[in-house]
Amino acid sequence: MSRARIAFLLPVTAALIAAGCGSDDSDDSTTTASAENCTPDQLETLEAEKLTVATDDPAFPPYFEDNDPTNGKGFESATAFAIAEQLGYDEADVEWVVEPFNSSYAPGPKDFDFDLNQISITPKRAEQVDFSSPYYEAEQAVVAIEGSDFADATSLADFADATIGVQIGTTSLEAVEAEIAPSEDPQVFDTSNDVVTALEQDQVDAIVVDVPTAYFLTAVQVKDGVIVGQFPAPGGDEWGALLEKDSPLTACVSQAIDDLNESGELPELEKQWMSEVTDTPVLE
Predict the structure, then answer these.
(1) CATH number for the domain including 174?
(2) Closest by alpha carbon to 209, among 139, 140, 119, 282?
């Protein structure tokens, strides 16, 4: 529901936790596009020879910097401009619009060509929208309060008796149930704000979010919050560009991402903007 997002308050946290959260299964339904069909004069975009890219507001680090998607700073901002360039668009031809995370994968027409907002690729969502090839795979992280009983845990088994908070309908919930399987059912909250509040008010021992979000929370939002460690979501948690269902652009956007991966440009952007993620200890 991509980081790894500084002084925002709880509305930012809401976007953060939701953003990297989804199911753990990916849908690989895209087809290879031919280069001659993936040029601005051939692509059926919302506006002729322009590329309209969506993300949420506020847009936050490490995915966007200074709440300004247009500046090319941050992992997803840089990735969007790299995709655009791969397709033949100049930076001036990229238009940014706001699309709230929770409405991005709703069925129906879209007011954008593609959306980058840490949206997990899931079969359920893919029934209503298209996804490109994945551009990032996120791990899950456990966040606790420094000095608490679980802050120094070194394995997933250490959380067997913990009360863990998660947001409903997220990859994090699935990961807790599948990988930790605590003796007490996870405490499930309707909103990401409620998850964070529960941790701060000692209603839960720890919370689980994606790793980039965990870095934001512990750096900015949760006083004395610490990242205990990371672990994979079952089956992985891949993020893709989201497009309208059966969009004529899907194959070309996927091909652009595949080419960026093959050339090494996308891994370099990930390294530049998401490098802290690799320093998180692994819980097994």
Answers:
(1) 3.40.190.10
(2) 140
